[in-house]
UniProtKB/TrEMBL annotation:
Primary gene name: cobJ
Higher taxonomy: Bacteria, Pseudomonadati, Nitrospirota, Nitrospiria, Candidatus Troglogloeales
Functional pathway: Cofactor biosynthesis; adenosylcobalamin biosynthesis
Gene3D superfamilies: Cobalt-precorrin-4 Transmethylase, Domain 1 (3.40.1010.10), Methyltransferase, Cobalt-precorrin-4 Transmethylase, Domain 2 (3.30.950.10)
The protein, known as: Precorrin-3B C(17)-methyltransferase
Enzyme Commission code: 2.1.1.131
Length: 279
């Protein structure tokens, strides 16, 4: 084989060109073949002129991954595209499972590069100010590949740990009860008026931001392209923003900069609540 194949795993961010990284643009530009879920391909359509496109539906992920690897093995330059970050609930895992099966190694018959992208939780957070400034956990409510019992366990752990929580895949037409169940679980650990942002289609057509509270979040319109951010015990709403303090205001006077509680680590208001705090 004269030409060495190249396989690029590309996350292109939330969906708007402005949030596509320079490297993502570069490697999509370089590719002979672009492989992806149809909707994702449409989002980068402007970059695809003159390229071969392999667009398949959502359920054909394994086929798509195999095609991408096969074509790179044949010496082509292949970009497999995915929204957000390709390694976060994306195709990178499946591709690397295949690579491990076929015994691929760096320096082998094709190169592999993972290009990071802006994941939904950062995109969504940026639209509502500063909700993720302290420890957070991401949980996908999709039980298509993960048993629901495992998801529940993680929700309990995230609730118990008072993490800010980002819910990916919160709901679809077929998965319509999981969000309510997640809400019930989190209400065991968080107060009902915990601030919540429900963001649909961040940086895409049809973008919609709803600020609500944990006890009311299931009333918002939630679909396949929604990410939900749920505050921790310190998160507060300010105008149309959610703010999770890092603890500066507990430690310093924000106007003078003087230390108020020398040596005491006080992450925001959360420690004002008793340690055994339950809603
Ligand atoms: N790899 C992607 C996640 C894929 S899972 C990433 O890193 O963002 C699909 C889920 O991502 C959706 O159900 C939704 O929760 C979230 N998502 C993807 N794009 C989004 C967008 N533009 N706005 C809000 N949520 C989005």
């Amino acid at each position: 084989m004269d030409k060495k194949g190249e396989l690029y795993l590309v996350g292109f961010g939330p969906g708007h060109f402005n949030h596509l990284t320079f490297r993502a643009r570069e490697v999509i530009g370089r590719a002979d073949v672009v492989v992806g879920y149809r909707t994702y391909i449409d989002l980068v359509a402007d970059l695809l002129e003159g390229k071969e496109i392999v667009a398949t539906g959502m359920t054909e992920e394994i086929d798509r991954a195999r095609v991408a690897v096969d074509r790179a093995q044949k010496g082509e330059r292949v970009a497999i595209v995915s929204s957000g970050d390709v390694g976060i609930y994306g195709m990178a895992g499946l591709i690397f499972e295949i690579l491990s099966e076929i015994g691929w190694k760096p320096g082998g018959d094709f190169s592999v590069e993972v290009i990071p992208g802006i994941t939904a939780l950062s995109a969504v957070a940026s639209l509502v100010g500063a909700p993720l400034t302290h420890d957070f956990a991401a949980v996908s409510l999709s039980d298509l590949l993960t048993p629901w019992a495992v998801i529940e366990k993680r929700l309990h752990a995230a609730g118990e740990g008072d993490f800010v929580i980002a819910l990916y895949n919160p709901q679809s037409k077929r998965r319509d009860w999981q969000l309510k169940r997640a809400q019930e679980i989190l209400l065991q650990y968080k107060v009902p008026d915990t601030p919540v942002a429900v963001v649909k289609s961040a940086y895409r057509e049809g973008e919609r931001i709803v600020l609500t509270t944990l006890d009311r979040m299931a009333e918002a319109e939630v679909g396949m392209l929604t990410t939900i951010l749920i505050g921790n015990a310190s998160t507060f709403r300010y105008l149309d923003f959610l703010v999770t303090p890092r603890g500066y205001s507990g430690k310093y006077d924000l106007e003078s900069g003087e230390i108020l509680h020398k040596g005491i680590d006080r992450p925001g208001r959360s420690l004002n609540r008793p340690p055994d705090f339950k809603a």
